[in-house]
Amino acid sequence: DGEEGRVKQTTAQRLYTYVQSDYKLKVENQRLFVYGDYEDDRFNGYDYRSSIAGGWSQLVWRNEISDFRFSVGPGYSLAKLESGEKAENIHGFIVRASAEYHYIWPTGAKLRQFVSTEAGEDNIKSRTETSLSANLFESLALKLSFIMQHNSNPTDSNTALNTETSVAVVYRFF
User: Fold this and answer.
1) Which residues pair with 14 in a beta bridge?
2) What is the Cα Rg of the chain in Å?
3) How sure is the predictor about 174, in pLDDT bands with cuts at 50, 70 and 90?
4) Residues sharing a CB contact under 8 Å with residue 86, sequence separation 6 or more, in sequence order
5) In the Cβ-directed half-sphere of 46, how many Cα atoms lie within 13 Å?
6) Please, are residues 60 and 70 in contact by the beta-carbon 8 Å criterion?
7) By CB neighbour count within 10 A (0-12 exposed, 13-18 middle, 19+ buried), where does 112 fall?
8) Average pLDDT over the chain, rounded to whole?
9) Are residues 55 and 25 in contact, defined by beta-carbon separation less than 8 angstroms?
10) Which homologous superfamily is 14-171 in?
């Protein structure tokens, strides 16, 4: 069988998860937020990276076809740098800012634009996600996404900008 001479090589393996919770204040459209994330990427030079932040969030507008919100606040970042056999912990205070825009066409297609930045003493980590989803059936949709991640101070063997493109089928339960 022709498989014997082939070398199988992993070129990407990444786990990224985040959560944000907003607490509504008495003033309309203003909130306090708490945010946390965790990233484990085999090819970015870090064993893991994580951050937590809290601060002020505001829904600037919401109508039938669009909405826009942003948040900003201080936080703390922790990472474990893999450098050969020696691992080094990197940590420090950050300022996190994010903005999110949604638009819904009359056909039901949806656009989402999300941008976030975490600025620390040694690095500025930015992430942007643009996605477009269209309903195939009542609770089934097709989603196209383009994600860019940028680090102002990447590890030695890595590029400053990483991109990811995906196509997904989304099923909505509610």
Assistant:
1) 41
2) 19
3) confident
4) none
5) 21
6) yes
7) middle
8) 89
9) no
10) OPCA outer membrane adhesin/invasin (2.40.128.100)
Q: Would you kindly state where each structural domain of the chain is located, as residue ranges?
A: 14-171
Q: What is the pLDDT of residue 86?
A: 53
* 134 half-sphere exposure, CB direction, 13 A CA radius: 4
Which segments within 14-158 are labelled E, that is strand? 14-24, 30-41, 46-62, 66-83, 86-104, 110-120, 124-135, 140-151
For residues 32 and 71, the answer to whether their CB atoms sit within 8 Å is: no
d(CA 52, CA 125): 14
| pLDDT higher than threshold 60 for residue 84 | no
CA–CA dist 143, 132 (Å, integer): 6
Q: Is the pLDDT of residue 2 over 60?
A: no
**Checking DSSP bridges between strand 110-120 and strand 86-104, what pairing results, if any?**
antiparallel
CB atoms within 10 A of CB 30: 13
pLDDT at 87: 58
Q: What is the pLDDT of residues 103-119, one digit of tens each?
A: 999 988 999 999 999 99
Global confidence as pTM: 0.83
Alpha carbons 59 and 80: distance in angstroms, whole number: 35
